[in-house]
Write a structure and sequence with these properties.
It is built from five helices and ten strands. 25% of the residues lie in helices and 28% in strands. Strands 5-2-3-6-9 form a five-stranded mixed beta sheet. The N terminus is likely disordered. By secondary structure, the chain is an alpha+beta fold. It is globular.
Length: 164
């Protein structure tokens, strides 16, 4: 995979990938503001199976913000997320808190290059693919990289947190 991040104009996610020397490819598409699902829009626009495109969700586990990375083809299992990080209860985070903490806008939250590093859990189905797609930090921009590299860079726990 080629590195396509520019020294200027990159997102914090692509800057972090470049700084780490991680191989990745950036994929851009025209974002439709009327789209009902950012992740499904990305999969369709890029011609990629929704099982390979992962959405980044921010939840609160026992009051602490936690990042969940799950396929856009499924949903987040909040109980499984809580268990994966040793918590008891998880709820979706307030969108404003998620944006403020990560430094990204909803629909463009990347698991990489966040303003403040949060505990992260990557759904185990990611390991079924040589590469997966996650937000590059902006609506209409995805980054393709190996699931192992994503887990390593984010310090993610890999667990079954998604459901069909």
């Amino acid at each position: 995979m080629a590195k396509k991040a520019r020294k200027t104009g990159g997102t914090p996610a692509t800057v972090a990938l470049t700084a780490a020397g991680t191989p990745f490819t950036v994929h851009a598409y025209e974002h439709d503001p009327a789209s009902a699902s950012y992740g499904e829009e990305a999969a369709e626009a890029l011609g990629v199976s929704p099982e390979r495109v992962f959405k980044t969700l921010v939840a609160e586990v026992d009051g602490a913000l936690t990042v969940a990375v799950v396929p856009v083809a499924g949903q987040l299992d909040l109980k499984a997320l809580a268990a994966a990080v040793g918590g008891k209860r998880a709820v979706m985070a307030d969108p404003a808190a998620a944006e403020r903490t990560t430094g990204y806008v909803r629909g463009g939250i990347s698991p990489l290059g966040q303003r403040r590093r949060l505990p992260t859990v990557l759904d185990e189905t990611a390991s079924r693919h040589p590469t997966i797609y996650v937000s590059a930090g902006r609506r209409g921009l995805e980054v393709e990289l190996s699931p192992g590299d994503l887990a390593g860079l984010t310090g993610a726990v890999v667990a079954r947190i998604g459901r069909a």
